[in-house]
């Protein structure tokens, strides 16, 4: 079973202006859609569409609009009740191929709501499960929440991965190697947060063919106890550090419609590959293929397997 945990779920509304975004101007929306969102929910959708057994765990009030969207998707989920409404994240698509995101912080969780959410997650986890902790933390959750959850989940005999940023990510990095996830999925910016360097520079170096900085950072995290580190590098591709080595692949070619959800799709691709028993090169290839497919779809659309074309011929061992 794959279990995803989304501490701060969202309604992802995407509007397409069909032209440039002008600050202070008046714009007319050409297209408008709302989809279920939150990194863990996106990952769960990818795994579910691939036919894997999955449960999405999240906080939401009974009757929240997000739940009807999850039910329409047929996504198995468990919710912990909260008083506040699920936040709305707004993505504005404008030309030339610019994505602008406006994210609400989310409702404040009480201590009782936090405890209930943690108890629900623990109740859902069994030995041998794969648990993916994804996204930002809702207000009310401590910055070291993922450190605490990683330790708790591993004590239950489950595999655990994390995809987060900012204070929760730096707290997790500071806890290594005493508390280490089995999988970590930073992008270049998040890897820079761990290192205290400019992530844009790391991505630019990778685009220029200089992978030393990303490779060394990913291997360092691996050597500090993280089982596998998947670094997504946007147009520059991605790098996987695991089993004492590093693999790199450039990005497959494809159209660009929306980058929202691409990283989550890559995570879903990795989990799918892991469930299939694929080797590191194939896991990296499948992750990037899922991310590329997502970029070619509108809004926060997570691809189906028939929309994903996996080839490992781009993967090289560094």
Give the mean pLDDT. 91
CATH superfamily: Ribokinase
Count of individual helical segments: 10
Low-confidence stretches: none
- For the largest sheet, list the strands in their spatial order: 5-4-1-8-9-10-11-12-13-14
State the share of residues found in helices, binned by percent: 25-40%
Anisotropy-based shape: globular
Radius of gyration: 19 Å
CATH topology group: UDP-N-acetylmuramoyl-L-alanine:D-glutamate ligase
As for the number of domains, it is 1
CATH class placement: Alpha Beta
Strand content: 15-25%
Topology pattern, helix = H, strand = E: EEEHEHEEEHEHEHEHHHEEEHHE
Biggest β-sheet description? 10 strands, mixed
Distance between the termini: 32 Å
What is the strand tally? 14
Structural class: alpha/beta
Name of the CATH architecture:
3-Layer(aba) Sandwich
Task: Name a few traits of the molecule.
transferase, 318 residues, globular, 4-stranded mixed β-sheet, alpha/beta, 10-stranded mixed β-sheet, 14 strands, UDP-N-acetylmuramoyl-L-alanine:D-glutamate ligase
Describe this structure in words.
This protein is an alpha/beta fold and 318 residues long. It has a single domain (2-317), classed as UDP-N-acetylmuramoyl-L-alanine:D-glutamate ligase (3-Layer(aba) Sandwich). It is built from ten helices and 14 strands. It has helices at 39-49, 65-73, 111-124, 145-155, 166-175, 188-195, 199-207, 212-223, 262-275, 280-295; strands at 2-6, 10-16, 31-37, 54-59, 77-80, 87-94, 98-103, 130-134, 159-163, 183-184, 228-232, 238-242, 245-249, 316-317. The strands form two sheets. The protein has a ten-stranded mixed sheet with strand order 5-4-1-8-9-10-11-12-13-14, sandwiched between helices. Helix 6 packs across helix 7 (199-207).
């Amino acid at each position: 079973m794959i279990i995803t945990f989304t501490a701060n779920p969202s309604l992802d509304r995407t509007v397409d202006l069909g032209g440039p975004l002008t600050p202070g101007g008046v714009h007319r929306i050409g297209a408008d859609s709302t989809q279920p969102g939150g990194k863990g929910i996106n990952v769960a959708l990818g795994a579910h569409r691939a036919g894997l057994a999955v449960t999405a765990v999240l906080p939401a009030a009974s009757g929240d609009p997000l739940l009807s969207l999850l039910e329409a998707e047929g996504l198995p989920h468990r919710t912990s009740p909260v008083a506040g409404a699920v936040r709305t994240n707004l993505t504005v698509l404008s030309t030339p191929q610019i994505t602008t995101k406006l994210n609400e912080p989310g409702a404040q969780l009480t201590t009782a709501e936090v405890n209930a959410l943690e108890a629900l997650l623990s109740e859902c986890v069994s030995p041998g499960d794969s648990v993916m902790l994804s996204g930002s933390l809702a207000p009310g959750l401590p910055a070291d929440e993922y450190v605490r959850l990683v330790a708790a989940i591993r004590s239950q005999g489950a595999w655990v991965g994390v995809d987060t940023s900012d204070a929760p990510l730096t707290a997790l990095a500071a806890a290594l190697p005493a508390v280490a996830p089995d999988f970590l999925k930073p992008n270049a910016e998040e890897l820079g947060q761990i290192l205290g360097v400019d992530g844009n520079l790391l991505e630019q170096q990778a685009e220029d063919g200089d992978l030393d900085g990303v490779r060394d950072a990913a291997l360092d995290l691996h050597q500090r106890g993280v089982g596998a580190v998947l670094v997504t590098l946007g147009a520059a591709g991605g790098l996987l550090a695991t089993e004492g080595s590093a693999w790199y692949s450039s990005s497959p070619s494809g159209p660009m419609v929306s980058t929202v959800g691409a990283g989550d799709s890559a995570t879903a691709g990795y989990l799918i590959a892991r469930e299939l028993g694929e080797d590191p090169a194939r896991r990296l290839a499948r992750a990037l293929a899922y991310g590329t497919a997502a970029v070619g779809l509108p809004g926060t659309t997570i691809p189906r397997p028939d929309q994903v074309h996996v080839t490992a011929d781009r993967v090289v061992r560094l």
